[in-house]
Amino acid sequence: xxxxxxxxxxxxxxxxMRLPWPDGPYxxxxxxxxxxxxxxRLYDGVGDxxxxxxxxxxxxxxxxxxxxxxxxxxxxxxxDKAFRGFGRAATGHDGxxxxxxxxxxxxxxxxxxxxxxxxxxxxxxxxMLDRSVTRIYFPDEAxxxxxxxxxxxxxxxxxxxxxxxxGTDLDNPDSVLLRFDIHMQxxxxxxxxxx
Amino acid sequence: xxxxxQGLVVPDSGKLVLPEYAKPQLGNHPxxxxxxxxxxxxxxxxxxxxxxPQRLTEVTGxxxxxxxxxxxxxxxxxQHAGEPQGQRIIVFGQVRDxxxxxxxxxxxxxxxxxxxxxxxxxxxxxxAPLDPNFTGVGRAITSxxxxxxxxxxxxxxxxxxxxxxxxxPAHIHMSLFxxxxxxxxxxxxxxxxxxxxxxxxxYNSVPDEKSKLAMVAEFSIExxxxxxxxxxxxxxxxxxxNQSVFEEAHE
Lengths: 195, 251
Known about the structure:
The complex is a heterodimer. Chain A is mainly β. Chain A has one domain (15-183): Aromatic compound dioxygenase (Protocatechuate 3,4-Dioxygenase, subunit A, Sandwich), CATH 2.60.130. Chain A has one helix at 142-147; strands at residues 36-43, 53-58, 86-90, 96-101, 107-108, 114-115, 118-125, 132-137, 165-167, 176-179, 182-183, 193-194. In chain A, the strands form 3 sheets. In chain A, strands 1, 4, 9, 10 and 11 form a 5-stranded mixed β-sheet that branches. The longest helix of chain A is centred in the last third of the chain and has 6 residues, at 142-147. Chain A is globular and about 40 Å long. By secondary structure, chain B is mostly beta strands. Chain B has one domain: Aromatic compound dioxygenase (Protocatechuate 3,4-Dioxygenase, subunit A), CATH 2.60.130. Chain B has 2 helices and 16 strands. In chain B, the strands form 5 sheets. In chain B, strands 5, 8, 13, 14 and 15 form a 5-stranded mixed β-sheet that branches. In chain B, strands 7-6-11-12 form a 4-stranded antiparallel β-sheet, with no helix packed on it. Chain B is globular, with a radius of gyration of 20 Å. The relative contact order of chain B is 0.23. The interface between A and B is large, with 79 and 95 residues.
């Protein structure tokens, strides 16, 4: 016996009045050693920035663990309480968003293979009746990416849309900066997933 | 062999036994391309979606807790010096998954217009009055039985630019995390008998009639508080778990 699900509806244009809490983009506090900054822009089908979007991220910690009872490997023993795993950022007037986090570790896929380090992403905005789900992979993981069981199912000519681009933060050259733009449509349309 | 908190067996071979969340039924969720709602045109993926298996990242999710909220967050009528204008209402219900299990300890966020149909937002241009005593944003965490309860005021209807004489039916936006990334849901709660429902392309974007009705709250005289507030029940159903799937290792 299975009940009907409550349907999804759009977040509309006005969620940003309070939903994004001030430290939302910070999966770890600013200044955490090893923190990486992911900058991106969200674009619509004609390449215009989407200024009323919201990006949410969810990921493992640097050891590939989750502080969650559904992770059958058990609790994180040396768990870093400051690491939330979750990020939320509203897009700016130019469609831009920022997430500050730690790079996740690789994960067992459950069949002996490994998933390359990745971040799951939900995209919400006015005009989206349901979220769109995508993933961020890392540019310095070419070998792991090539063996990733999910990336392998993505058409080869579209895989690059899921891999962040290396960048440099001119103000802070020691920190790691990645770029990850999200295109809802068009020649650079990001790969979205059916979850 | 070890057993995790939720009783999941962890085989020593390193195989993973993970829950799997059921897929929505056909017509249960709106299509991302819904021409009646014009803004979907340039904002839906056009390429085919790629199937994402539910593995560790998908079956876990943020468990956002009490540190984010206070009791006052669930009462939208006491967030300012004075009381907001409008009809006071209680919105309550249960969050459960599609096989009937309550979803405890999950964050619900709501946002809505004031009684005059105006959001407190810089981009909002509807010429209706703002209410200095109403922000229109609330948060609550479900109880062990999946129950939640907000006190707020009846939101108003407002015009929008989708088509000539377009008005949104009164609604309350609701955002839920469930217990896993896969269960994440943002929906809208509507009010019974609203004459605008039949004209609203967002409400009507849901193909299945029964699913659509699941977004309409039910007035409850039993829970209405004499001399004080009307009550509406709104239960929310998230994707439930199939039986655990065992996968063989290729070792």
